[in-house]
Amino acid sequence: MSSGTIVRLDSKGRVTLPLEVRRKLGLREGSQLRVLVDEEKGRIIIEKAESIAERYYGVFRPRRRVDDVEEEIEEAVYRAWLGDT
């Protein structure tokens, strides 16, 4: 669901996003925003710019757990130490 609020443009062309808006989108100082201009409809769209890492977080899952890999490494080292390769 979208919600709207009216904000003012200051003398330097800046807009302050209300705290409620920043909280809803998880925005904080330094967050990047994408500004889109729809000239036909005379509107500006401001959206949270996600990094590639944020966008694809959790999409790729490891085939094995780290604990399993560490155990395999330990076993390989032990076998190599025994000369059982």
TrEMBL record:
Task: Give residue ranges for domain SpoVT-AbrB.
Answer: 7-54
Q: Which Pfam families does the record cross-reference, listed alphabetically?
A: MazE_antitoxin
Q: Which residues form the signal peptide?
A: none
In its UniProt record, a GO molecular function of this protein is: DNA binding
The family database entries (SMART domains) matched by this protein are listed as: SpoVT_AbrB
Q: Which InterPro entries match?
A: Repressor-like_regulatory, SpoVT-AbrB_dom, SpoVT-AbrB_sf
Record's NCBIfam families? lp_hng_hel_AbrB (TIGR01439)
| Name listed for the protein in its UniProt record | AbrB family transcriptional regulator
